Amino acid sequence: MKRLLFLLFIGLTACNSTEKKQDRLPYKSVDVEILLEDSLNIRAIEIMGQDLAFAGANGVYGIYNSAENGVRLNRQQHDSIYPEFRAVASTANDFFMLSVANPALLYKTGEDGQMELVYSETHENFLRLYDLLE
After folding, report:
1. Does residue 123 surpass a pLDDT of 80?
2. Which has more confidence, 13 or 68?
3. What is the C-alpha separation between 130 and 110, in angstroms, rounded?
4. At residue 8, what are phi and psi to the nearest 5 degrees?
5. Nearest alpha-carbon partner for 89 in 37, 35, 33, 130
6. Distance CA 39, CA 73 (A)
7. Which residue, 122, 131, 44, is CA-closest to 78?
8. Global pTM?
9. Is 85 helix (H, G, I), strand (E, B) or coil?
10. Cβ 100 vs Cβ 88: under 8 Å
11. In this structure, is the dihedral angle defined by the CA atoms of residues 75, 91, 34 and 98, taken in order, positive or negative?
């Protein structure tokens, strides 16, 4: 019993953090800069270093290049449909886009810089929420 109490005491004291949390000051103002004025329906964004990648409705995706202060747009088509992208993510080397609806489509940047389909799922009772890119 003494061992159990000792282990419980050690476990509780070891979890206690002595680091001071840094106080955060509230924002006093926010500057808004328009990067692109268009009728796009952007549904997902990802910060990639100093750039901003995005994807959305009707197969539209692109990137805001902060060094050039410009936007590059493209449109992805799969067979006869334009996917509805709702999730994006990135690694050091690749950018990923995931669509909703049936079929679910996962794209990543290919060797030639174009998006390539890496996964597709079709299901007759397709009612899933994909939240795997976090």
Report:
1. no
2. 68
3. 22
4. -65, -45
5. 130
6. 13
7. 122
8. 0.69
9. strand
10. no
11. positive
Calculate mean pLDDT across residues 60-65.
Answer: 94
| pLDDT at residue number 39 | 84
Tokens for 99, please give them: 């669509």
- Whose tokens are 């901003």? That residue is 52
pLDDT for 37: 82
Burial status of residue 53 (CB atoms within 10 A of its CB: 0-12, 13-18, 19 or more): buried
Total residues belonging to the chain:
134
Q: What is the pLDDT of residue 132?
A: 46
Residue type, 99: S
Q: What are phi and psi of 11, to 5 degrees?
A: -65, -40
β-strand pairing of 95-100 with 104-109: antiparallel
Q: How far apart are CA 77 and CA 62, in angstroms?
A: 14
